[in-house]
Amino acid sequence: MRAQGTNTMTKHNLLLALTPALLLGGCMGNQPARRGVESVHQPVVQRSDYVLDLQVAGDRLASGESQRLAGWLDGLRVEFGDRIGLDDQGSSSAMLRGQVSGTLAARGLLISDEVPITAAPVAPGTVRVVVSRMKASVPGCPDWEHRLDTTFESATSPNYGCAVNRNLAAMVARPEDLIHGAGTTTTDPATSNRAIVAYRKATSTGGGGTAVKAESAGGR
After folding, report:
1. How big is the chain by its Cα radius of gyration, in Å?
2. Category of 154 on φ-ψ map: left (φ > 0), alpha (ψ -120 to 50) or beta
3. What residues does 83 pair with on adjacent strands?
4. Tens of pLDDT along 147-160?
5. SS3 helix, strand, coil % of the chain, rounded to 5?
6. For every residue of 62-127, which 3-state class applies, written as one string?
7. Which of 89-118 are b and which e, b meaning 16 or more Cβ less than 10 Å from the residue's Cβ?
8. What are phi and psi of 41, to 5 degrees?
9. Disulfide check for 141: which of 88, 108, 162, 207 has CB 3.0–4.6 Å away?
Protein backbone atom coordinates (compact mmCIF):
# COMPACT_ATOMS: atom_id res chain seq x y z
CA MET A 1 0.00 0.00 0.00
CA ARG A 2 2.82 2.36 0.80
CA ALA A 3 4.53 1.73 -2.52
CA GLN A 4 1.30 2.35 -4.38
CA GLY A 5 0.80 5.65 -2.58
CA THR A 6 4.31 6.76 -3.41
CA ASN A 7 3.80 5.93 -7.09
CA THR A 8 0.58 7.92 -7.18
CA MET A 9 2.27 10.90 -5.56
CA THR A 10 5.10 10.75 -8.09
CA LYS A 11 2.69 10.85 -11.03
CA HIS A 12 0.82 13.75 -9.46
CA ASN A 13 4.02 15.77 -9.02
CA LEU A 14 5.06 15.00 -12.58
CA LEU A 15 1.78 16.32 -13.96
CA LEU A 16 2.12 19.50 -11.92
CA ALA A 17 5.62 20.02 -13.28
CA LEU A 18 4.54 19.52 -16.90
CA THR A 19 1.48 21.80 -16.71
CA PRO A 20 3.36 25.13 -17.29
CA ALA A 21 5.26 23.63 -20.20
CA LEU A 22 2.03 22.38 -21.78
CA LEU A 23 0.39 25.77 -21.34
CA LEU A 24 3.44 27.56 -22.81
CA GLY A 25 3.51 25.18 -25.73
CA GLY A 26 -0.16 25.82 -26.40
CA CYS A 27 0.37 29.59 -26.38
CA MET A 28 3.33 29.39 -28.73
CA GLY A 29 1.46 27.11 -31.07
CA ASN A 30 -1.01 29.90 -31.80
CA GLN A 31 1.73 32.21 -33.08
CA PRO A 32 2.93 32.06 -36.69
CA ALA A 33 6.56 31.14 -37.25
CA ARG A 34 8.30 34.41 -38.17
CA ARG A 35 11.83 33.23 -38.76
CA GLY A 36 12.84 35.87 -41.33
CA VAL A 37 13.58 39.58 -41.05
CA GLU A 38 10.52 40.64 -43.06
CA SER A 39 8.22 42.67 -40.83
CA VAL A 40 4.58 41.67 -40.52
CA HIS A 41 3.18 45.18 -40.98
CA GLN A 42 4.19 46.88 -44.23
CA PRO A 43 3.48 50.44 -45.50
CA VAL A 44 0.20 50.84 -47.36
CA VAL A 45 -0.27 53.64 -49.90
CA GLN A 46 -3.72 55.16 -50.45
CA ARG A 47 -4.64 57.63 -53.20
CA SER A 48 -7.32 60.31 -53.14
CA ASP A 49 -8.34 62.27 -56.24
CA TYR A 50 -9.80 65.80 -56.06
CA VAL A 51 -11.38 67.35 -59.18
CA LEU A 52 -12.37 70.87 -60.20
CA ASP A 53 -14.13 71.72 -63.46
CA LEU A 54 -13.33 75.14 -64.90
CA GLN A 55 -15.31 77.02 -67.51
CA VAL A 56 -13.61 77.85 -70.81
CA ALA A 57 -14.21 80.93 -72.94
CA GLY A 58 -12.69 80.48 -76.35
CA ASP A 59 -9.05 79.47 -76.06
CA ARG A 60 -8.61 80.48 -72.42
CA LEU A 61 -10.24 80.21 -69.03
CA ALA A 62 -13.43 82.17 -68.43
CA SER A 63 -13.35 85.30 -66.31
CA GLY A 64 -12.67 84.58 -62.66
CA GLU A 65 -11.77 80.91 -63.19
CA SER A 66 -8.06 81.49 -62.59
CA GLN A 67 -8.87 82.98 -59.20
CA ARG A 68 -11.19 80.10 -58.41
CA LEU A 69 -8.45 77.62 -59.32
CA ALA A 70 -5.94 79.43 -57.10
CA GLY A 71 -8.33 79.43 -54.14
CA TRP A 72 -9.10 75.75 -54.64
CA LEU A 73 -5.42 74.81 -54.71
CA ASP A 74 -4.73 76.86 -51.59
CA GLY A 75 -7.67 75.21 -49.84
CA LEU A 76 -6.20 71.79 -50.61
CA ARG A 77 -2.76 72.99 -49.53
CA VAL A 78 -1.09 71.40 -52.52
CA GLU A 79 2.60 70.69 -52.09
CA PHE A 80 5.42 68.57 -53.39
CA GLY A 81 4.24 64.99 -53.78
CA ASP A 82 0.82 65.94 -55.17
CA ARG A 83 0.31 65.02 -58.82
CA ILE A 84 -1.77 67.57 -60.73
CA GLY A 85 -3.17 66.76 -64.16
CA LEU A 86 -5.29 68.64 -66.69
CA ASP A 87 -8.08 66.60 -68.26
CA ASP A 88 -9.12 68.54 -71.35
CA GLN A 89 -9.77 65.64 -73.75
CA GLY A 90 -6.89 66.99 -75.84
CA SER A 91 -8.79 70.13 -76.89
CA SER A 92 -7.21 72.88 -74.76
CA SER A 93 -5.06 75.54 -76.34
CA ALA A 94 -1.53 76.53 -75.42
CA MET A 95 -2.85 79.71 -73.82
CA LEU A 96 -5.24 77.81 -71.57
CA ARG A 97 -2.56 75.37 -70.46
CA GLY A 98 -0.29 78.34 -69.87
CA GLN A 99 -2.85 79.87 -67.50
CA VAL A 100 -3.12 76.67 -65.48
CA SER A 101 0.66 76.17 -65.56
CA GLY A 102 1.23 79.70 -64.30
CA THR A 103 -1.08 79.15 -61.34
CA LEU A 104 0.75 75.94 -60.48
CA ALA A 105 4.20 77.45 -61.02
CA ALA A 106 3.44 80.10 -58.41
CA ARG A 107 3.20 77.20 -55.94
CA GLY A 108 6.27 75.38 -57.22
CA LEU A 109 4.30 72.70 -59.10
CA LEU A 110 4.00 71.50 -62.69
CA ILE A 111 1.27 69.89 -64.76
CA SER A 112 1.70 66.13 -64.81
CA ASP A 113 1.60 64.18 -68.07
CA GLU A 114 -0.51 61.50 -66.38
CA VAL A 115 -4.17 62.17 -65.63
CA PRO A 116 -6.13 59.60 -63.58
CA ILE A 117 -9.50 58.42 -64.85
CA THR A 118 -12.36 60.12 -63.00
CA ALA A 119 -15.92 58.92 -62.55
CA ALA A 120 -17.81 61.51 -64.61
CA PRO A 121 -16.84 62.65 -68.12
CA VAL A 122 -15.67 66.18 -68.76
CA ALA A 123 -18.56 68.37 -69.87
CA PRO A 124 -18.23 70.36 -73.11
CA GLY A 125 -16.85 73.86 -72.59
CA THR A 126 -14.95 72.89 -69.44
CA VAL A 127 -11.58 71.51 -68.44
CA ARG A 128 -10.92 69.43 -65.36
CA VAL A 129 -8.03 69.84 -62.95
CA VAL A 130 -7.29 66.66 -61.02
CA VAL A 131 -5.15 66.62 -57.87
CA SER A 132 -3.97 63.13 -56.91
CA ARG A 133 -2.70 62.88 -53.37
CA MET A 134 -1.14 59.76 -51.91
CA LYS A 135 -0.69 58.94 -48.24
CA ALA A 136 1.43 56.18 -46.74
CA SER A 137 0.64 54.53 -43.43
CA VAL A 138 1.33 51.27 -41.60
CA PRO A 139 -1.94 49.76 -40.30
CA GLY A 140 -1.74 47.68 -37.15
CA CYS A 141 1.35 49.35 -35.71
CA PRO A 142 2.36 49.26 -32.94
CA ASP A 143 1.52 45.61 -32.32
CA TRP A 144 2.21 44.37 -28.79
CA GLU A 145 -0.09 41.36 -28.89
CA HIS A 146 2.59 38.84 -27.95
CA ARG A 147 5.09 41.06 -26.18
CA LEU A 148 5.22 38.83 -23.05
CA ASP A 149 5.44 35.49 -24.84
CA THR A 150 8.67 33.54 -24.92
CA THR A 151 9.81 32.00 -28.18
CA PHE A 152 12.28 29.19 -28.62
CA GLU A 153 12.24 29.44 -32.42
CA SER A 154 14.26 32.67 -32.81
CA ALA A 155 11.11 34.26 -34.22
CA THR A 156 10.49 38.01 -34.37
CA SER A 157 7.58 39.69 -32.62
CA PRO A 158 4.62 41.14 -34.56
CA ASN A 159 5.90 44.61 -33.65
CA TYR A 160 9.25 43.98 -35.34
CA GLY A 161 9.88 46.66 -37.99
CA CYS A 162 6.97 48.88 -36.98
CA ALA A 163 9.15 51.82 -35.98
CA VAL A 164 11.22 51.75 -39.18
CA ASN A 165 8.23 51.34 -41.49
CA ARG A 166 6.18 54.05 -39.77
CA ASN A 167 9.08 56.51 -39.94
CA LEU A 168 9.61 55.67 -43.61
CA ALA A 169 5.91 56.20 -44.38
CA ALA A 170 5.96 59.53 -42.53
CA MET A 171 9.14 60.89 -44.13
CA VAL A 172 8.86 59.81 -47.77
CA ALA A 173 8.16 62.87 -49.93
CA ARG A 174 6.37 60.93 -52.66
CA PRO A 175 4.47 57.96 -51.20
CA GLU A 176 4.07 56.46 -54.67
CA ASP A 177 7.83 55.81 -54.67
CA LEU A 178 7.14 53.07 -52.14
CA ILE A 179 5.20 51.23 -54.87
CA HIS A 180 7.36 51.42 -57.98
CA GLY A 181 10.36 53.52 -56.97
CA ALA A 182 11.65 56.70 -58.57
CA GLY A 183 13.56 57.11 -61.80
CA THR A 184 13.21 56.67 -65.53
CA THR A 185 12.81 53.56 -67.64
CA THR A 186 16.16 54.19 -69.35
CA THR A 187 19.62 54.48 -67.81
CA ASP A 188 21.92 57.29 -68.90
CA PRO A 189 25.56 56.57 -67.95
CA ALA A 190 26.39 60.26 -68.17
CA THR A 191 23.84 61.00 -65.46
CA SER A 192 24.64 58.05 -63.23
CA ASN A 193 28.40 58.76 -63.39
CA ARG A 194 28.14 62.53 -62.93
CA ALA A 195 29.06 62.43 -59.25
CA ILE A 196 32.00 60.11 -59.95
CA VAL A 197 33.33 62.35 -62.71
CA ALA A 198 33.02 65.45 -60.49
CA TYR A 199 34.92 63.67 -57.72
CA ARG A 200 37.72 62.58 -60.05
CA LYS A 201 38.14 65.99 -61.66
CA ALA A 202 38.24 67.89 -58.37
CA THR A 203 41.62 68.93 -57.04
CA SER A 204 42.92 67.34 -53.89
CA THR A 205 41.77 68.62 -50.55
CA GLY A 206 45.26 69.86 -49.83
CA GLY A 207 44.99 72.19 -52.82
CA GLY A 208 41.69 73.67 -51.65
CA GLY A 209 39.49 71.76 -54.08
CA THR A 210 36.88 70.15 -51.87
CA ALA A 211 38.25 71.11 -48.48
CA VAL A 212 36.32 73.47 -46.25
CA LYS A 213 38.48 76.45 -45.32
CA ALA A 214 38.33 77.22 -41.64
CA GLU A 215 38.78 80.82 -40.66
CA SER A 216 39.20 82.19 -37.20
CA ALA A 217 37.09 84.94 -35.76
CA GLY A 218 39.93 87.36 -36.41
CA GLY A 219 39.74 86.73 -40.14
CA ARG A 220 43.08 84.88 -40.41
Report:
1. 32
2. left
3. 132
4. 655 667 777 888 88
5. 35, 15, 45
6. CCCHHHHHHHHHHHHCCCCCCEEEEECCCCCCHHHHHHHHHHHHCCCCCEECCCCCCCCCCCCCEE
7. eeebeeebeebbbebbeeeebeebeebeee
8. -95, 120
9. 162
